[in-house]
């Protein structure tokens, strides 16, 4: 499985960005797609995940601001990020499992 992420960039505090991650290859009908992030000097952390059945999980710090969704027909997961804060600045990576595949990271910078 190959994952390709898009959508990072520079945004002002309070702004919005939408990330997307497309999976290709041997896609299972049962899987989880997730977004993780790693800020400078910090450990990688789960941002949100969505199962092929539509069940979602969010990190406490993004609840109410971020929305994860997926298009199973396109094997693509999206992360809509609203009300962005400087502390959301990080490299965001998508993950597909099982078994366990990672896409390249995309940098999100929230700064005025």
Folded structure, characterized:
It is a single chain. The strands form 2 sheets. Strands 2, 4, 5, 6, 9, 10 and 11 form a 7-stranded mixed beta sheet that branches. A 4-stranded antiparallel beta sheet has the order 1-3-8-7, with no helix packed on it. The protein is an all-beta fold. It has strands spanning 2-6, 9-11, 17-24, 32-38, 45-51, 56-58, 66-71, 76-81, 90-97, 101-102, 106-110. The chain is built from no helices and 11 strands. A hairpin with a 3-residue loop joins strand 9 (90-97) and strand 10.
Structure in a nutshell:
This protein has 112 residues and is an all-beta fold.
Structural class: mainly beta
Q: What best-fitting shape do the alpha-carbon axes yield?
A: globular
Contiguous uncertain segments of 5+ residues: none
Rg calculated over all Cα atoms: 13 Å
Major sheet description: 7 strands, mixed
Assess the beta-strand content as a share of residues: over 45%
What's the β-strand tally?
11
The SSE string, one letter per element, is EEEEEEEEEEE
Helical content, roughly? Answer: under 10%
Calculate the terminal CA-CA distance, rounded to whole Å: 37 Å
Number of helices: 0
Average pLDDT: 95
Please supply descriptive tags for the structure shown above.
112 residues; four-stranded antiparallel beta sheet; single chain; mainly beta; seven-stranded mixed beta sheet
Topology:
Layout: E1 2-6, E2 9-11, E3 17-24, E4 32-38, E5 45-51, E6 56-58, E7 66-71, E8 76-81, E9 90-97, E10 101-102, E11 106-110
Parallel strand pairs: 2-11
Antiparallel strand pairs: 1-3, 3-8, 4-5, 4-9, 5-6, 7-8, 9-10, 9-11
């Amino acid at each position: 499985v190959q994952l390709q992420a898009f959508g990072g960039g520079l945004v002002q505090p309070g702004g919005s960005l939408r990330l997307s991650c497309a999976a290709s290859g041997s896609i299972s009908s049962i899987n989880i797609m997730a977004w993780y992030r790693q800020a400078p000097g910090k450990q990688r952390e789960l941002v949100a995940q969505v199962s092929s059945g539509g069940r979602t999980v969010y990190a406490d710090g993004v609840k109410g601001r971020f929305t994860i969704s997926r298009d199973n027909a396109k094997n693509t997961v999206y992360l809509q990020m609203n009300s962005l804060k400087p502390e959301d600045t990080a490299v965001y990576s998508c993950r597909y499992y099982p078994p366990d595949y990672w896409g390249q990271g995309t940098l999100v910078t929230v700064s005025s």
